[in-house]
Write a sequence for this structure.
């Protein structure tokens, strides 16, 4: 009897516990009922719910989005614009909490580049390419190195300049706004049919005599030197003089600046201009004299292909008069020498041109003035 009574008491105890056990509540979703995103931009939304959900679910997500059923995080990159009514679910052992979420995906506001994926140009000829893009880019960039001689205006997206090297260059151009970056793979094709500016002196850097005669630009390392003589008490030397009007033969839209002034001109000025890799060479420059009584009024031109022995063989013009180009009344005169028919000049590391001051009132405080010396050629 005592055993039966004990059994009844224990059974009643467990029955009472089971009857009074508190069930875990069903999850209640409490997050915002709306969310927005943009096509092409990463999206994240977290389902927030009470009662420790053990899993999550959702219906009708926009294309490109997915849910992590363990954490309740909805993420991805939307691919389609529109408004999507989604049913969110937070689940535990007691049941499922449900809420409605409205997701609005707007069209992409990233820049979309619409300009051509190819661009062609020629060495020595002006080149322009404009990056055209939608959604109001605020800046532009390139992903790698542009063809030699070209630069990009990062405010306007214009790529411009004068190509100096032939070949094909594949680059990535970029249009950027607050939403991100639009890209396009652009293939540049530069042909070698145009003339290339190999060496250029504009003589505008007057910081020192060294910078004055240093090339403004050079491909093969051009240089200037002088062989001056002393006649009676006069010795040749050089400095700069202001050239207040745009001179002949300026390159790249350079402003008027200074000229090279060869004072008490005697003997010669040597222009060392290696032509390695190029042919059809043409040398040109602007020149005037200070006066008819105190300057070298006739100059002669010679060249060397071995670096030592000078000649004028093959040149159409070997000497010229400067009597019409006298400061201040006369303008600068343009002198040009075409070496295209002289094959030994092509692809020559030893090529030099010597300007000899041969006639006039030498060494009497006069000067000959040179500006915008250029050497151009075509890729060999």
């Amino acid at each position: 009897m005592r055993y039966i009574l004990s059994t009844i008491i224990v059974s009643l105890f467990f029955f009472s516990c089971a009857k009074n056990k508190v069930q875990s509540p069903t999850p209640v979703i409490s997050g915002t009922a709306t969310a927005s995103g943009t096509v092409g931009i990463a999206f994240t939304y977290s389902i927030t719910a009470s009662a420790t959900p053990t899993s999550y679910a959702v219906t009708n997500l926009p294309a490109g989005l997915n849910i992590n059923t363990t954490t309740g995080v909805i993420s991805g990159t939307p691919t389609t614009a529109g408004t999507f009514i989604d049913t969110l679910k937070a689940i535990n052992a007691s049941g499922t909490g449900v809420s409605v979420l409205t997701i609005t995906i707007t069209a992409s506001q990233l820049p979309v580049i619409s300009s051509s994926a190819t661009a062609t140009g020629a060495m020595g000829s002006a080149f322009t390419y404009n990056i055209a893009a939608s959604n109001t880019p605020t800046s532009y960039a390139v992903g790698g190195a542009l063809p030699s001689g070209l630069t990009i205006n990062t405010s306007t997206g214009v790529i411009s300049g004068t190509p100096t090297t032939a070949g094909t260059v594949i680059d990535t151009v970029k249009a950027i706004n607050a939403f991100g970056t639009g890209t396009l793979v652009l293939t540049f094709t530069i042909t070698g049919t145009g003339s290339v500016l190999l060496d250029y002196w504009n003589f505008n850097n007057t910081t020192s005599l060294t910078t004055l005669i240093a090339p403004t630009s050079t491909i093969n390392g051009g240089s200037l030197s002088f062989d001056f003589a002393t006649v009676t008490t006069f010795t040749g030397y050089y400095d700069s003089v202001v050239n207040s009007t745009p001179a002949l033969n300026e390159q790249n839209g350079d402003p008027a600046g200074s000229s090279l002034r060869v004072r008490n001109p005697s003997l010669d000025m040597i222009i060392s201009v290696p032509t390695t890799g190029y042919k059809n060479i043409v040398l040109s420059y602007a020149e005037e004299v200070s006066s008819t009584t105190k300057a070298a009024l006739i100059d002669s031109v010679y060249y060397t292909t071995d670096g030592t022995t000078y000649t004028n063989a093959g040149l159409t013009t070997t000497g010229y008069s400067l009597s019409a180009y006298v400061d201040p009344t006369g303008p600068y005169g343009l002198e040009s020498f075409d070496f295209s028919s002289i094959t030994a000049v092509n692809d020559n590391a030893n090529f030099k041109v010597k300007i000899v001051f041969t006639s006039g009132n030498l060494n009497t405080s006069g000067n000959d003035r040179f500006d915008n010396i250029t050497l151009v050629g075509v890729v060999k």
